[in-house]
Design goal:
The protein has six helices and 51 strands. The protein has a 36-stranded mixed β-sheet that branches. Strands 8, 9, 10, 11, 12, 13, 14 and 15 form an eight-stranded mixed β-sheet that branches. Strands 3-2-5-6 form a four-stranded antiparallel β-sheet, with no helix packed on it. The protein is globular, with a radius of gyration of 30 Å.
Length: 896
């Protein structure tokens, strides 16, 4: 902590010195056309006449006003430009002219000459739903990858997983020079595309890449198009990295990119054991490759269980050892003017070791309700993703597409644990393994009959196979009251399952443009899902498997879900207000067959929804959305036979489960102001869930049996978030906050238990650059978590001040420092823990040289563990995760 305060004091001193040393003054004005009409979004640049670089820039507000900050008395070349008007240039000197603002009149350029030159120089260009940012105006020169560039753009946010948000909305697709890469997923490109190849970044609001739907687009999706520098086109570029360190540390990484007007090729590969995760198991599980369901748009869904089996996700901040190998290849080519073909292949191999000690307090348990669980876990996975896509667009009125996505995986999670509860120690060994695979096919066709009538048809089919196997070994007899085992120590049981899913969806849409302010959309569709599941539990004694002969421990289930629906959506505009009401009629047929009994029910639901969006300006809006949802469960919640989930948990399904019904309401506000460089966005969300699928939990000591039910008490979640940032002359500040309150109900025995969690996270930060050589980001993150059950309550707090700094010195040297301090408190158990993480990196690169040499030290303070907490329907836990110890690495980088 003392280190943090010392660095903070030095930073603030430097900041104060810089503020005094540089006498800057405001320079203001107004830009209008020849009729005196203010021009919004005109660009104003002050060029340094000595360095021939942009010294300051501004964008006009709705009244045509601009404000830039200049050095007092210094000469500048002022450039003012706006699309469709002749640019203006003038020599000025910096002075405070607030008493007599500059007035500039732009003349229309009837011949539209010079637009290309104007666009090239404009820092921000706003054309309809497209905003183009010139990257080098916003960057500091210390950026290495695309994610660093995006983080510097106003209103942009890039998290540690490479997910990009703009004004609080997640980017749905990323392209490079108009070509989709890796299914449009952002992580691989933000983490690997070199920063020095980026010329401009285009933000595409209301994104729609289907030409026939351009006139009836109802999407509010956002996409990014990364425009490369001209000298990076038609050539191969990228970088190669090799590194090694003591204790057999190694790092190898390669990026290669090729872009031409007709073809793009991307190759990303790497292997290391230092925690640099190119592609993780969590990436594999979430990766859709751009394929999605259709029925969810109409307010209905079948929640299919994931393949991940609850495997722990290993990251640098919770794992002792991380080994990762990745190879990814993407291609995109245009064989003809009307035909585009693309695809990718991603292979990943991970081998991670995690260790933790957790204190687990069980809800509504008498006497000593705390368990101490020590765990050492090894997770390995070999996974592959393959996608093929082709689009045929012979003219703007017709587009036909086909997609195929294949997933394969071989995963194993091995855990060695010790459970201490009520004076009894239980030595536990568990192995979760599976080899799931799936294949998805999607066909789409869009046809615009004329400028007012459009039709589309989309269909998909997925086949998925899952075969989870759980091999459990315990020193104490497991589930003695429910499972009869022969005397053998350790006790070894194997839980096997096999789930096969076939899912087909189709939808037909008709769009009609009634007039300029009213569109209508009619749709009909269906979902047909068929699942089968078998399971068995055996005891292994002396390498021989013995069937337990208990029908309550086996499953043989067939399940069918059908949804037929029709919908109507009206899109109408009243001035700046866009109102979109929808009405969807669903007819469901659900059936499951098990143990000679058939459970069948039909249901009809009418689901209304509505959204409203008011635009104060093109970058200032308020939106309100209401969307009910009928959520159905899949076969694994319906299968009656008991399933061993882990060493102290059994699960038995409920064949008469019905659907849950959700009411979802959201309010979102966004104000992006390029005149004042103040951006704020945030939202409020509320969800109330009726007949929600919850659990009846029956405890026997530490062991429990979970059975799902449609609980007749409503569950609800309320959340709010706000993000604000402001740029000043010498620095920028930012603040973010998120609050979530969740109320969920379940039964523990025959007692209704209400679980309430309140989670709050607030972050404030300051960023500045000293003398164009030192960049500092400093901030504080404060977290409050409160968890309440019927007879238990706990509060956790964490204070995390942090600082990131990079300094360029001498010629070609750069020092990066990343430090955080954590003060974690468990209020109920009176536990306090302090831990620090310090990473340092020193690099050298000679000017214009393709070679870079790097020494990096990670976790230099050799912190051994960090604290975390969690909350579930039956217990509250606080963890200490063991992390990678200190290591050093020497690397060499070569730019292609």
């Amino acid at each position: 902590m003392k280190k943090f305060f010392l660095i903070t004091i030095i930073s603030l001193f430097c900041f104060a010195f810089q503020a005094q040393a540089q006498k800057k003054v405001p320079f203001v004005g107004q830009i209008t056309d020849s009729l005196g009409v203010p021009l919004q979004f005109a660009n104003v640049l002050a060029m340094d006449t000595v360095k021939n670089s942009i010294a300051a820039f501004g964008v006009t507000d709705p009244q045509g006003n601009f404000r830039i900050t200049l050095l007092d008395g210094k000469a500048y070349k002022l450039k003012i430009s706006f699309i469709g008007f002749l640019p203006v240039e003038a020599m000025i000197k910096g002075y405070n002219n607030t008493d007599a603002p500059l007035s500039v009149v732009l003349k229309e350029n009837s011949k539209q000459l010079g637009d290309v030159e104007v666009v090239t120089e404009m820092p921000v260009l706003i054309q309809g739903d497209t905003i183009t940012y010139k990257a080098d105006v916003f960057t500091k020169g210390n950026e290495r990858k695309l994610g660093d560039v995006l983080s510097e753009l106003p209103g942009f946010e890039v998290n540690e997983d490479g997910q990009v948000k703009v004004e609080g909305q997640t980017i749905s697709k990323l392209m490079v020079d108009g070509k989709e890469a890796f299914g449009g997923d952002t992580k691989l490109m933000t983490k690997n595309l070199p920063a020095n190849v980026v010329d401009k970044v285009q933000l595409l609001k209301n994104f729609n890449d289907v030409a026939p739907l351009s006139g009836v687009n109802q999407s509010e999706a956002m996409a990014l198009n990364i425009m490369l520098k001209e000298d990076k086109k038609n050539i191969l570029f990228g970088d190669l990295t090799a590194g090694a360190g003591p204790e057999d540390r190694y790092l190898g990484h390669a990026n290669a990119f090729y872009y031409s007007p007709k073809t793009s090729l991307n190759l990303i590969g790497g292997a290391n054991n230092v925690g640099k995760l190119t592609f993780t198991m969590s990436d594999y599980f979430r990766f859709s490759g751009g394929l999605g369901g259709f029925a969810s748009r109409s307010g209905s869904g079948l929640r299919l269980s994931s393949n991940n089996l609850g495997f722990p996700v290993a990251e640098r901040n919770n794992a002792q050892e991380l080994k990762n190998e990745t190879l990814a290849f993407n291609f995109n080519t245009t064989p003809g003017k009307a035909w585009r073909v693309s695809g990718f292949a991603i292979g990943s191999k991970v081998n991670n070791t995690l260790g933790s000690v957790s204190r687990r307090n069980y809800i509504l348990q008498t006497g000593d309700n705390q368990e101490i669980l020590t765990s050492s876990t090894n997770t390995r996975s070999n996974a592959g993703l393959f996608k093929f896509n082709t689009k045929y667009t012979p003219n703007p009125s017709l587009q036909i597409g086909y997609d195929a996505l294949v997933r394969i995986s071989d995963s194993e999670n091995t855990a060695i644990q010790n459970s201490e509860f009520g004076g009894v120690n239980n030595a536990i060994g568990g192995v979760n393994s599976q080899e799931p695979w799936s294949i998805q096919n999607q066909l789409s066709a869009f046809y615009a009959m004329d400028d007012k009538n459009v039709m589309s048809f989309e269909a998909s089919y997925e086949h998925k196979f899952q075969d989870p196997l759980y091999d459990l070994s315990t020193s104490e007899r497991p589930f003695a009251s429910l499972i009869t085992l022969s005397d053998d120590n350790p006790f070894n049981i194997l839980q096997s399952r096999e789930i096969i899913t076939d899912n087909q969806e189709s939808i037909l849409n008709y769009y009609r443009i009634l007039n300029k302010t009213n569109h209508i959309n009619l749709s009909v569709g269906n979902v047909y899902t068929k699942q089968s599941m078998t399971s068995d539990l055996v005891q292994r004694v002396n390498d021989n498997d013995f069937n337990l002969g208990n029908a309550d421990l086996m499953n043989d289930v067939d399940y069918t879900f059908q949804d037929y629906y029709a919908g109507i959506t009206l899109k109408t505009k009243f001035g700046n207000l866009l109102f979109t009401p929808s009405l969807n009629l669903h007819y469901y047929q659900i059936e499951n067959v098990q143990r000679g009994t058939t459970e069948r029910f039909d249901k009809t639901l009418l689901l209304p929804s509505a959204s409203a969006r008011y635009k104060f300006s093109s970058s200032h809006s308020l939106s309100l959305n209401y969307s009910p949802r009928a959520e159905f469960t899949d076969i694994q919640n319906l299968a009656r036979g008991l399933i061993v989930r882990n060493y102290n948990s059994l699960f038995g399904g409920n064949p008469i489960l019905k659907n849950s019904f959700y009411h979802n309401l959201s309010l979102n506000y966004s104000n992006f102001n390029m005149y004042s460089f103040f951006n704020v966005y945030g939202g409020l969300n509320y969800s109330k869930r009726f007949d929600d699928v919850s659990n009846i939990i029956q405890f026997t000591g530490l062991e429990r049996v979970n059975t799902p039910i449609n609980i007749d008490v409503a569950n609800e979640t309320m959340s709010g978030n706000i993000n604000a940032d402001k740029r000043f002359d010498n620095f920028s500040v930012n603040f973010s906050g998120r609050v979530t309150r969740s109320v969920s109900n379940n039964f523990i025995g025959d007692i209704l238990n209400e679980n309430v969690s309140l989670q709050q996270t607030y972050t404030a930060g300051l960023s500045t650059t000293f003398f164009k050589k030192m960049n500092i980001d400093i901030g504080l993150e404060k977290t409050f978590n409160r968890y309440d059950g019927n007879n238990i309550s706990n509060r956790f707090e964490n204070d995390k001040p942090f600082i990131k700094m990079d300094v360029r010195f001498w010629k070609g040297f750069r020092l990066d420092v990343d430090y955080e301090y954590n003060n974690y408190q468990n209020k109920a158990n009176d536990i306090q823990s302090d831990f620090e993480i310090l990473d340092v990196e020193l690099t050298y690169r000679k000017a214009k040289s393709p070679w870079e040499f790097k020494i990096e030290g990670m976790n230099l303070l050799n912190t051994t563990g960090i604290r975390r907490d969690s909350f579930s329907e039956s217990l509250i836990s606080t963890y200490e995760y063991f992390i990678q110890k200190r290591y050093w690495l020497l690397s060499v980088v070569y730019d292609l």
